[in-house]
Amino acid sequence: MNGKILVTGASGQLGALVVDSLLAKVPADQVVALVRRPEAAAPLEAKGVEVRFGSYGDAPALAAAMQGIARVLLISGSEVGNDRVGQHKSVIDAAKDAGVELVAYTSILRADDSGLWLAVDHRGTEKLLGASGLPVALLRNGWYNENLTGALGQSIESGAIIGASGSGRYSPASRADYAEAAAAVLVSDQPAGTYELAGSESFDMAEFAAEVARVSGKPVAYADMSEAELKEIYLSAGLPEVVAHMLADSSAHAANGDLEASGATLEGLIGRKSTPWQDSVKAALA
Ligand SMILES: NC(=O)c1ccc[n+]([C@@H]2O[C@H](COP(=O)([O-])OP(=O)(O)OC[C@H]3O[C@@H](n4cnc5c(N)ncnc54)[C@H](OP(=O)(O)O)[C@@H]3O)[C@@H](O)[C@H]2O)c1
Known about the structure:
The termini are far apart. The mean pLDDT is about 95. The strands form three sheets. This protein has a seven-stranded parallel beta sheet, with helices on both faces. It has a two-stranded parallel sheet with strand order 7-11. By secondary structure, the protein is of the alpha/beta class. It has a domain of about 180 residues: Rossmann fold. It is about 45% helix and about 15% strand. Helix 1 packs across helix 8, helix 9 crosses helix 13 and helix 10 runs antiparallel to helix 11. It contains 13 helices and eleven strands. The longest helix has 15 residues. The site of NADP nicotinamide-adenine-dinucleotide phosphate (NAP) has 23 residues, from helix 1.
């Protein structure tokens, strides 16, 4: 793989890790980072990569950003509820107009039949990619370990990890694992395809709470409730409606197995087991 690789969302947590993983595989002059905020450029430039600017939706900026690019990683936008499909379309259109040889996209596990509300935008984007006629790599990422470990302080304080997933199992991996997998696909000789990516181990929320209790030494248990009750708690904690809905919906669909999958494809791409979820719990509590 000799051409330039453009990573969108490079100022984000996943994007920055993809840039790092690419730098371990190809020379820095092959990696281009797309950001939308000028202040996001410096940390990426410090890594030796070229930074280009453009927001999703800004067609002229995206057209300029695509010049000389062979492969694009479109990292799904983070503005849930704000026409993400339209935003992604602008990137796909620019990539097509520029004649890139591949677009990789960070989608969600089994996007075509997932019940998650989050999957709706990903299905819409996957359809656009299919219709574009471009060679496409669908990186259908499972849950992040970090989604589960992000608010452990509060859980320990209250003694409860709340959810609506019952005994549904999660197979998450760390952001760094998904980033490494994305880089492996981006530099691959035959990158096009659909990759269902999940962690090597699965567990339910009662097991997760038991591990948090063990590592923290504090009494923490899993409190299961209805999706409506969970959403109400998120709303009363001040989360915006769309975020409360997204979180409660995702938890409820985990009860049906929508966030459980085999870790084999991810392991194949990164050449090792995914980061143990117990390590992520430990890191979050350190
Ligand atoms: N599978 C999962 O469990 C999971 C969990 C969380 C998120 N996700 C998805 O995966 C993506 C990457 O995750 P992450 O942890 O890296 O999220 P993140 O840290 O919030 O990063 C999101 C990135 O997308 C950029 N971005 C968002 N909207 C944009 C727009 N309209 N135009 C240009 N850039 C835009 C952000 O730019 P700024 O820095 O300027 O904001 C940032 O670089 C998320 O955006 C979300 O779609 C998946």
